[in-house]
Write a structure and sequence with these properties.
Layout: H1 3-22, H2 29-36, H3 40-46, H4 50-68, H5 81-95, H6 97-101, H7 103-109, H8 111-137, H9 145-169, H10 178-190, H11 201-211, H12 215-218
Length: 219
């Protein structure tokens, strides 16, 4: 691997670590360079500013979500797919939690990123509807098109605002844990409760128990 590419990757990984731990607003390019033991000029050789680093990290997040938020090829959905989707979503949210912590500020600061995010959000909603339809086709959920659309939208609203809710409602310091994000995933699963087919009820309830985190552990 060429040295320049290696340095670029180190910058991206260090930025993700610092943004997640301290919050994007508290971290400057000088902080990132100092953390890596390189000069600011070396960092700017690879990224012209902090927004360019954030754009690179968002692209990684976008690719990760696109990779799992889709129907499997060549087969129908099964109950085993439900925890796979939810755990993949939890992993992506945790790995790139800084994006969820201060999303509005990030989009206000970069018009190009805001355009990309709108496209990403629309794609996620479309794919989520296809997945819910797949669970309906598999006999796991019982709902019609309007209910599928509403469920996908409500799930997106929860997932895109959950970290902000934690900060305003019970976690003003902004510290996050996997349990806090896991409760957000549980909230999405709870939206489906009235639509679960009787044959799938016991398996889904077991998934509920796995994801449930008491609010006292969240706040």
């Amino acid at each position: 691997m060429p040295p320049a590419l290696k340095t670029r990757e180190r910058i991206v990984l260090a930025s993700l670590e610092l943004f997640n731990d301290q919050g994007e607003r508290a971290v400057t390019t000088n902080h990132i360079a100092a953390h890596l033991g390189i000069s600011p000029g070396n960092l700017y050789y690879h990224f012209r500013n902090k927004q360019a680093i954030i754009a690179e990290l968002f692209e990684q997040y976008e690719r990760q979500v696109d990779a799992f938020l889709r129907l499997p090829e060549g087969r129908a959905l099964t109950l085993a797919d439900k925890p796979r989707y939810l755990e993949a979503l939890l992993a992506a949210m945790w790995q790139f939690r800084f994006l969820h912590r201060d999303l509005e500020h990030l989009l206000d600061s970069d018009a190009g990123l805001a355009v990309r995010y709108r496209s990403f959000a629309q794609r996620c909603l479309h794919n989520a509807q296809a997945i819910y339809q797949g669970f309906v086709d598999a006999g796991i959920l019982l709902m019609g098109p309007a209910q599928i659309e509403a469920l996908a939208l409500n799930a997106w609203i929860i997932m895109s605002s959950w970290v902000r809710f934690l900060g305003t409602a019970g976690n003003p310091a902004g510290d996050l844990s996997e349990d806090m994000l896991r409760r957000g995933i549980y909230q999405v699963l709870a939206l489906e409760d009235g639509y679960i087919a009787p044959s799938a009820r016991s398996a889904v309830e077991e998934l509920h128990r796995k994801l449930f985190v008491p609010l006292v552990q969240v706040f």
